[in-house]
Amino acid sequence: MDDDHLEEPLGAAAREYHAPPPTPREAMWQAIETRRRAERPRKPAPRRWIPWAAAATVLLAAGAALGRLSAPGTPPGHARAPAAAADGAGGPRVSEAAYRIATIEHLDQSEAFLTMVRASLRSGDRERLAPAAARQLLATNRLLLDSPAARDSRMRLLLQDLELVLAEIAQLPADATASQRELVGEGIERGAVLPRLRTVVPAGTSSTRGDL
Amino acid sequence: MNDRELIGRVLAGDPGAERALYDAHVDRVFRLVYRMTDDLHRAQDYTQEAFIRGFRCLAGFRGDSALSTWLCAIAVSVTLNGLRSLRRAREREVGLDEAPALGVQRLEADPDLRSRLASAVDGLPEGYRTVFVMHDVEGYTHEEIAASLGVQPGTSKAQLSRARARLRVALADFARD
Q1: What is the CA radius of gyration of chain A?
Q2: Looking at beta carbons, which residues of chain A come within 8 Å of B27?
Q3: Tens of pLDDT, residues A132-188
Q4: Domain limits for position B120
Q5: Count of domains in chain B?
Q6: Is A186 touching B (CB cutoff 8 A)?
Q7: Which residues on B lie below 8 Å from A31 (Cβ)?
C-alpha cells in the first residue's frame, strides 16, 4: 500500500469531494468593497442616525410642550401643569399629532434600517449590521412606547415587536457567527415586522432615509 | 506585478490594487473554503471575511510565506471557526447521541463511491479532514499546509497518513474491488 498517493479509484473520488461551483467573484467583491469603503473614512455608521434621532427627540419635546400649552383651560402661566391634564378626556390634539409624526418618522427609519440589515445578512456584509444604530433606534422606540402614541393598540403591538428585533441586532457582537446572524434574520421575518412597518408608513414619508 | 508591489499599492490606499490582489487569489481561496463547507453561502461568507481580514492585516504581513499561503491561512482559520460554531449550534438542536447514528445510516444507504467517500471524509476529525482536503483534494504541499495551519510539515504528513488510513478502512469494500 503506497502512502504517497491515495490509490485509485479512491484518489479520483477524493478529487470530486465537494466539487466547488464557479467562483462567485463579482458578488463577493461587491460585498468586500462595500465593507472596505465603509472602513476607509473611519466614520462610524451610527453617526448617520444622530441627526434624525435628535430631530425625533426635539419633535417629541415640542409636541409635549405644545400639548401642554394648548390644553383646554390651562392658563399660560400653568404650562407646567401635571401630565394628567394632557392625558385627560379632552387631551391635546396638537400633542398627539406631534407624537404621531415622530412615531411615523421613527417607523420609517426603522423600516429602512431593517431593510438594510436584511440585505446585509443575505450578502454577508457584517459591518453594516450597525448594532450602534440599532441601539439608537431602540432608545427612541422605548421613548415612543411610553408616549401617548402607544395608546393605539395596533401601534403599541408593532412597537413592541420592533423592540425585540432591534434588541437582537443591538446585542449582536462584532464577530457574530453565521448562526447568530441567522437568528437575527429569523427575528426580522418572525412576526412580519417589515411588512407591517411598510403598511403603517406612508410611501415617501421621510427625507432622512436617502443616506441608507 | 508581483505580490510585493501589489501589497505596497494596497497599503498606499489604491483600491484598484485591492481588486487585483483579490482577483489573483480568490479562486484558490474560494475553492478551498467551498471544499471545507460544501455550502455556497457559507463559502461566500467565509471567503469574503478572509479577504476583509487579509486587507486589514496586510501591513502585518512579513513575507515569511507566499501571500497566497498567508491568505489561505486566514481563510482556513475563518472557516474552521465558522464550522465549529455551526457544529455547536447543531449539537444543541439535534443532541449529541443522534448525530453519529445519522452518519452511519447515510453510509449504509448509499453505495456510490463518491458519496461514500464524501461521508467518510466528513466524518474525519477536523485536523485530519483539513489536511486531507488541502493535500489530496486541492493539491497543497505539506509546506503550504504547515504554514497555513501553524504546524510542522511532519505533523501535516502524519495527519494525512492517518486520514488516508481511516478512509481505507471506511471504504475497504471499494478498495478490494
Answers
A1: 25
A2: 23, 25
A3: 788 888 888 888 888 776 777 788 888 888 888 888 888 777 777 777 777 778 778
A4: 3-92+113-172
A5: 1
A6: no
A7: 44, 48
Please give the model's pTM, rounded to 2 decimal places. Answer: 0.53
What does the pLDDT look like over B41-68, one tens digit per residue? 999 999 999 999 999 899 888 888 899 9
Burial of B107 (0-12, 13-18, 19+ CB in 10 A): middle
With CB atoms and an 8 Å threshold, state whether A39 touches B56: yes
B102 inside domain: no
- Residue A1 C-alpha, separation from nearest chain B C-alpha, in angstroms: 10
Residue A103, helix vs strand vs coil: helix
**CB B71 within 8 Å of CB B51:** yes
Cβ atoms of A139 and A203 within 8 Å: the answer is no
- What residues of chain A, 21 to 80, have a C-beta less than 8 Å from chain B? 21, 23-25, 27-29, 31-33, 35-36, 39-40
**Summary mean pLDDT of chain A:** 72
What is the value of ipTM here, to two decimals?
Answer: 0.82
Closest to B48 (Cβ–Cβ): which among A13, A18, A124?
A124
Q: Which of A124, A207, A138, A128 is nearest to A171 (CA)?
A: A138
Which CATH number is B133's domain given?
1.10.1740.10
Are the C-beta atoms of residues A53 and A136 closer than 8 Å to each other?
yes
